[in-house]
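Task: sequence in, structure out. Protein: Sugar-phosphate isomerase, RpiB/LacA/LacB family.
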Amino acid sequence: MRIAIGSDHAGYELKKTVKSWLEDHGHEVNDMGPYSDESVDYPDYARKVAQAVADGEYQQGVLLCGSGIGVSVSANKIRGIRAALAFNPEIASLARQHNNANIICFPARFTDADTIKTSLGNWFSAEFEGGRHERRVQKIEP
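Result:
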């Protein structure tokens, strides 16, 4: 699967770990920045990843910032994006099953690499349930 990944400075170190894990699991990953832990503005990187997913260049996106909230809010401003904040494996599964999330966001200051890896495994293996969830997801788009 083609995946775009990005973060802010708070998520930089975890992003490197997550990128390696994704590649080790056979995914093609484009790191859209940043490329150091110097202070940056999370909306810039969230927008890059979200636009690339919305444009169909990448099938899924992964974003990290300190709380995960900033990148989630920023990504969701792009039409066609359903970015979900996931802080444990169960939430990651539900993000796919109920919301058909195409970007998953993690709180780098409040989670660890193992939790993120397990959460990603759940997210990738879960399937959108459709049905009543499809109706709800359709109501998200203006």
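The longest helix spans residues 12-24.
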